[in-house]
Each structure stands twice: as C-alpha cells, then as structure tokens.
Design a protein that fits this description.
The complex is a heterotrimer of chains A (79), B (284) and C (414).
Chain A (H helix, E strand, L loop, with lengths): L5 E6 L7 H9 L8 E6 L4 H12 L2 E8 L2 E7 L3
Parallel strand pairs in A: 1-2
Antiparallel strand pairs in A: 2-4, 3-4
Chain B lengths: L1 H19 L5 H11 L8 H13 L1 H22 L20 H8 L1 H6 L1 H24 L18 H16 L5 H4 L2 H26 L8 H12 L7 H4 L4 H17 L7 H13 L1
Chain C lengths: L2 H13 L3 H9 L11 H5 L7 H16 L1 H5 L11 H11 L7 H5 L6 H14 L5 H15 L5 H18 L18 E4 L5 H12 L4 E3 L7 H5 L2 H18 L3 E4 L3 H9 L7 E4 H10 L4 E2 L7 E4 L12 H10 L3 E3 L16 H4 L2 H6 L2 H10 L3 E4 L2 H13 L5 E4 H8 E2 L1
Parallel strand pairs in C: 1-2, 1-3, 3-4, 6-7, 6-8, 8-9
Antiparallel strand pairs in C: 5-10
Helix pairs in contact in C: 1-8, 4-6, 4-8, 6-8, 9-13, 10-11, 11-21, 15-16, 16-21
The chains are: A alpha+beta (79), B mainly alpha (284), C alpha/beta (414).
Chain lengths: 79, 284, 414
C-alpha cells in the first residue's frame, strides 16, 4: 500500500484536449503544498502527459493506477 | 515685378485678341489668348522664379525619376535579400485554381468585387485610369503615337483624368468615416491629398486641351516638344518654347508629379510593385 | 523597459523578417477591406479586433525600428516605441486573433495576419509575457517527447484497456491487433490526442477498412504554434516526424485537429511521408469500397469548416462527402468553405483564452449555425468541437456538436 492519502479527487474524465492538463495546472492550488491529489482520467495520453507536466511545473507524480476504463494518477503538490 | 508685369499683360493680350476676333465664339477667344501670348524676359524676382521653374521642369524631373527607379530596386532587393520563407503560406481556394490565379487576384480583385462591389468599381476605375494616364503621358512623346500626333487630345480627352480623380475623392472621404478613419495615419491623408492635387492640375490641363483649339496651357504639340526635350536630355529652358499665360499651372503639375515620383518607393504606392509577388504567396 | 530589453526584443523581431513577412509588413495600404472579415469584429465591433487593427500594432514597431521613415518622420505612420504598453497591445492583438486567416482571403494583397501576429507572440515570449498556460503545455509536450520510453509499458496497458470499446463498434479482423502500437512499415501512422475519444472511432474505422496502421505515442496538437514560438513548434513536431521516420510509415494521418494538421502539412517542408487528415482517409476508404456507411443520421446536419483544415490546408470536400453518405439531410452553413466564420477558439484561445471573450466573439458563429436549422453541427477539429460545444450552450442554439469520425464510426456497415 502506498504511503500517502489523497486529500482531494480531481475528476477529469472525458475532457477534450488539452483540458485535463489545463485544469490540473489551475486546480493544483486547491491542495496544500505537500498534499496529494487523485486525478481521475479516461485519456490514455494522460499516462505520459502527467509525468511530463510534473517535470515541467516541478510537481510530482507519485503513482499511476490503471483499471479498465479508468486511470488514477496521484499527484503531489511540491510548491 | 516681372510676375506682375506678366500678369498685367494678360488683359492687354485679351483686348487685342477680342478686337481681332470680335465675332468669334468663346472658345476661339481663349485659343487666341495662347496664340497672342509672348514670352517676356524675366526681371527681378521673375529671374528667381524662372530658375525655380526651370529646375522643376527639367533637372528635378530627371532626379525624381532616377530616385524612383533606384528606390524601387532598393526596396525589392532588400526584401529578396531577406531569408527565404521556409514554409508555405498558401490559402486554398475552393474554386479551381490555375497558374493565373495570382494574376487574377492582383488585377481583378475578385474578393473585393464579391464583398464590396461599390468600392471595387471605384478601385477598378482608379487603377485603369492610372494605367491609361501613364499611356496618355507617353503618347505625348512624338515617337510614341497611340493617338495621331496632330490630335489635340490626350487619351480619353480628359475623361481618363476624371476617372482618376473622382475615385480619389471617394478614397479621401471614406477615410473620414469610422472604422477607416481609425486605421488612417497622417501619411495616408498626405498621400491622397498630394495625388488629388496632382490629378486636379492634370485635369485642368487635359480638359482645357480638349475644349479649346490651343489648349488650356498650350497645345499637345507644344507639350510634345517639352517631352521630346526631356527624352533627348536637351537642357534648354522650356519657358522659351512652351510659354503661355498658364505656364505656371504646368510647373505646379510637374512639381507635384516629381514629389509623387520620389514618394513611389517610400510610401504605400510601392504596392504597385509588391502586389504581384505578395499575391503569389497566397497561391503557392 | 530598459534599452537592453528593447534591443533584445528588436533582435527577436529581426528573426521573423523573412521575405514573406517583409512583404506583409510593407504592403498594407490601410484600405480597410479586412475590417469586416474578422468574426471578433463582427461580434464586437472595435477596431482592435480587426486584421488591420491588430497588424498595425506590430507594423508601427516595424516602421519605428527597421524603416528609415520611422527614424526621420515617425509621425507619418504614428509609430510607437517598444515599451510595456506596446507589449500589452501585442497581447491584446495576438490573443484575440484565432489565426483563422479569413482576412487573408479578403485582403487584396493577401496579407497574412496570423504571420504578423506570430511576431507579437514571439516578442511576448521574449519578454516573458506570454500566456503561461501555453508555454507550460508546450514544454510539457517537449518533455513528453524526451521521456516517452519511461511510460511506454503503461501507455500500452492504457491502450489495451480501451480496446473493448473499439471492438464494440467493429470486430477486429482475425490475426490483427485492435489498436496496434509500434508497427514498422505500417501504411498509416495515426496521431491522435490524449483523449480516448480521439482513438476509438478512428481505430474502428481502420479495422473496418482492414488497414495496416499503428497508433502514435504522441498527441498531434502543437502547442508551440499556439504559443508562437518557432523553436518549440519545431521540437514538438519533430517528435512525430522522428517516430514516423523510425517506423518507416507511408502516411501520417492526423486526428481531427486543425492546428496539428496544418503545421505538419505546411510548416515542416518536404517530409518522407504523406500527411493527411483522418477525415480524408475515411472518405478515401469509402470511395475505394473498403468501408461501407449507412445513412444512420436522422437529424439535419451541417458542417463547420475548421479554418486550419479547410481554408488553410485545402480539405473541403472529404467531410461533406462523408456526411452525405451518412445523411439525406445535409445543409451547408452560409458562408462556407474558405469564407466560413472561425469557431472563435483557434490560436490557443480554447486553452488560454478568457471564456467570456471566446463566447462574445462568437456571436456571429452562433447566428450562422442557428440559421442552418440543423440540429447536429459536425466538424473535424478538436478545438472547434470544444469551442462550438460551448457556443451552442452559451447561445442556446439547441444543437450538438459531433466529430466526423464519430458519426462515420456509428454509420459503419458490413
């Protein structure tokens, strides 16, 4: 089991391009620095998008969990 | 003093002329004015004026035309020396395109015709008249005969000039109205005003020529002498062979034309040379 | 703004002065024929929202810093000094322009406002005043290109997870993968977007036509172009070119995304593969008899020509052909094709623009759509789709927006 708990869920299922990343950039400030958010996505592209976003913005992707029809991405706000 | 004496000559000349042709109609009276005029040797301020007028009619014409030609070459060379555009900027027409599409865009302005028909008519009349005006001026040269050499008319007998002038009023007045008013800069007004005055003086000359036997200023045949002198680099003072009481109007017309020539490469008139290459960008 | 920064911006400006740009900056006669071309001006009649209004801001700086006139008689052209105020004007001009190039059709010279705006955008990047969301998205795309190997296995799993949704539309031909990845010598490399909606319908159509295709690891959209940064644009596009070259594919089919298609087709010069938009392939497969389409649509349908696919890349008839296979009740918008009104969301506005502005500037679009009387608005661009969806809601047009590929996938027949 992972050593973190998501304090907030961001539901980005079924959004058009590039909204998941745009929304993430805007909404990351809804959690405190050091906290972890859970992103729900249906986009296969999110698998690479979120780590690339994290590298660009200095945040951290802790884990990506896949279920049929759903991708869960755990994002830690670093700054 | 000389100017005054020149001006004061006119009524005498008129008197003499009317005395001789008492039964003649008005046109003939005016013809006689030109015939009866004599070249007076300038004195006093007239000497300075004569020198200025000579400079305008002969050396400045050469200088301004040379300036124009070098200016246009300079502008084109400076653009073509810039790095090549590394990608296509084509716009795709839904209609069939041919290699002539860019020519059609440049000379027929099909989009303007469709969207702004009234402005299109104005633009077309203006530009066609502009081309005819160039031809009309070349026609004055004895070596170029579009109309017969002894015709007293310029091409269009004054109508071409009107075709050039009326759209200019349209171009000027539409600049007073929103939203064109807001996109207009001082250079736009100044240029239109310059060309408008140039055209109005030209109209006066060409209409006068059409209405009277000896022309408003002088006959087309006399102008031909002036043009021939320019073409053969004969630096004689034109005052002595095309003198008429309205000589100064010709000088003003030529002065405005010289200014115009000099502005061609360095004002938006340069679009005359850029329109084709820039239109090609849209089609290739 | 200090002299050093002015000098740096002037240098940046100079990098944009290629031949075509020089013609564009030096030819305008202020005739005003472009004024009515802009959908923004037609919805909100203000001079700053016209092609000439936008270009003049850049042109005045050009005359000031690069022309004799600006040095000896700046008042003639009312030139401006490069300062913070001008940069704000640049922002207002460049990011109220969707780069649809409708004005270019109407300009008697064909001046490309989008190109002129690319100067404003580049200078904003240089002054660190660009919309941060666009530079972030661009950098994200570039980073994605650099670390694509790290996520390859997980990406394959995500793709596997959506395969049942493809198979629900069309059974995969025997011996083939539903969504093939990394296939060398494939006939078609399909470059989608992040969303699964951009993959599922296309995959079903490829499989119905029994094509040897493969899915790209990247998203097609080029945020660098929205941002107006040529270097980032190149890096983002090169990811796909490198992938296509490595896999030695014959054709690169771009998802329904206008920018992605036009940038790849026009801005990268000659490429060792053919670039098409996916809509062209659907029409081609139907014409070749590889797929059959039923007239499944019962509602009246119209088509929105995406600027970057139609006017700027020449694809007019393929989408209309497909819609006529799917429906007996297709009606064109007026105006259409190269005269069509922009959706109002191009040029990065959907990602970075202010929602109210996007909606208000699209009033003319809403009116145009309503007039068709259609209930379905089909289009072939993700950006247009998002924007028109919002416009339909904002203006209560009672219409819904659909992708051509989705409609075609629904109409697939044996």
């Amino acid at each position: 089991m992972a050593d973190y708990t998501a304090v907030k869920t961001f539901d980005y299922k079924g959004l058009p391009c590039p909204m998941p990343i745009v929304k993430m950039s805007q909404e990351i400030s809804r959690i405190a620095v050091g906290e972890v958010g859970e992103v729900l996505s249906t986009d296969p592209g999110s698998i690479a998008d979120f780590p690339a976003w994290a590298k660009t913005t200095g945040h951290q992707v802790l884990d990506i969990v896949q279920e049929p029809g759903l991708i869960k991405i755990y994002v830690k706000r670093v700054k | 003093m000389a100017l005054l004496s020149m001006l004061s000559m006119i009524p005498f000349a008129l008197n003499a002329a009317t005395a001789e042709t008492l039964a003649a109609d008005a046109a003939q009276v005016v013809d006689a004015v030109a015939e009866a005029s004599v070249v007076a040797e300038p004195t006093g301020f007239g000497i300075v004026l004569d020198k200025i007028e000579y400079f305008i009619l002969i050396p400045w014409v050469y200088l301004s035309i040379a300036f124009m030609i070098f200016g246009i070459i300079y502008r084109l060379v400076s653009i073509y020396r810039a790095p090549k555009t590394p990608f296509s900027l084509k716009i795709y027409s839904s209609k069939k395109e041919s290699p002539l599409s860019a020519w059609n865009d440049t000379f027929m302005l099909p989009q303007v015709r469709r969207n702004k028909p009234f402005f299109w008519i104005s633009l077309m009349i203006f530009h066609i008249s502009g081309v005819l005006l160039i031809l009309g001026h070349l026609d004055i040269l004895p070596t170029i005969s579009i109309l017969s050499e002894d015709s007293k008319h310029m091409i269009g007998a004054g109508l071409v000039g009107v075709g050039f002038t009326l759209p200019l009023f349209h171009f000027l007045f539409r600049r007073f109205k929103t939203p064109i008013r807001e996109i207009t800069v001082p250079a736009d007004f100044l240029l239109i005003v310059l060309v408008l005055f140039l055209a109005l003086f030209g109209d006066m000359i060409s209409w006068g020529n059409s209405w009277t036997a000896n022309g408003f200023i002088t006959t087309k045949q006399k102008f031909a002498e002036y043009f021939q002198a320019l073409a053969t680099f004969n630096f004689e003072n034109p005052r002595y062979y095309i003198w008429s009481p309205h000589y100064h109007f010709l000088v003003i017309h030529v002065a405005l034309a010289n200014l115009f020539f000099m502005l061609v490469p360095f004002s938006k008139i340069v679009h005359a040379f850029f329109a084709m290459p820039i239109n090609k960008l849209r089609r290739k | 703004m200090d002299l050093q920064q002015q000098y740096e911006l002037e240098k940046l400006f100079k990098t944009k002065l290629h031949q075509a740009m020089r013609f564009y900056l030096e030819t305008c006669t202020h005739c005003g024929l472009c004024v009515d071309s802009c959908h923004v001006y037609n919805s909100m009649p203000e001079l700053r929202y016209t092609a000439v209004g936008r270009s003049e801001v850049v042109r005045k700086i050009f005359i000031k810093y690069f022309k004799m006139q600006g040095k000896i008689a700046p008042w003639l052209g009312e030139t401006m000094e490069m300062d913070e105020f001008v940069l704000d004007k640049f922002y207002e001009a460049a990011f109220s322009c969707t780069g649809c190039r409708r004005c270019m059709v109407h300009c008697p010279f064909g001046i490309d406002t989008q190109q002129i705006m690319s100067i404003a955008k580049l200078l904003l990047v240089g002054a660190d005043k660009e919309p941060k969301i666009l530079s972030m998205l661009s950098d994200m795309s570039i980073n994605k290109g650099e670390q694509v190997e790290e996520s390859r296995a997980q990406y394959a799993e995500a793709i596997k997870n959506i395969e049942p949704e493809v198979e629900a539309i069309w059974p995969t031909p025997p011996g083939k993968k539903t969504i093939p990845l990394e296939v060398e010598h494939a006939d078609v490399l399909y470059v989608a977007l992040s969303g699964k909606h951009s993959i599922i319908s296309a995959a079903a159509i490829f499989n119905a036509a029994d094509i040897n295709w493969t899915l790209s690891s990247f998203e097609a959209v080029n945020f660098g172009a929205f941002l107006g940064d040529p270097q980032r644009t190149k890096k983002i596009g090169n990811r796909i070119i490198a992938e296509a070259t490595r896999l030695k594919v014959k054709t690169v089919a771009i998802v329904e995304c206008g920018t992605a298609f036009r940038i790849m087709k026009q801005q990268f010069g000659k490429l060792p593969f053919e670039v098409v938009t996916f809509v062209e392939l659907i029409a081609k497969y139907h014409q070749e008899g590889k797929i059959k389409l039923n007239k499944v649509m019962t509602e009246k349908v119209t088509y929105h020509d995406p600027c970057q696919i139609a006017r700027n890349a020449g694809v007019y008839e393929a989408p209309r052909y497909i819609l006529n296979q799917l429906s007996d009740d297709f009606v064109d918008m007026i105006p259409n094709r190269e005269e069509n009104w922009c959706c109002g969301g191009g040029g990065g506005l959907v990602a970075a623009g202010d929602f109210e502005f996007r909606m208000k500037s699209s009033k003319v679009k809403a009116d145009q759509m309503k007039k068709t009387g259609a209930t379905v608005v089909a289009t072939a661009c993700e950006n247009c789709h998002s924007q028109l969806h919002d416009v339909c809601g904002y203006y209560n047009t009672n219409q819904h927006v659909e992708f051509i590929s989705h409609l075609a996938a629904q109409g697939l027949a044996k």
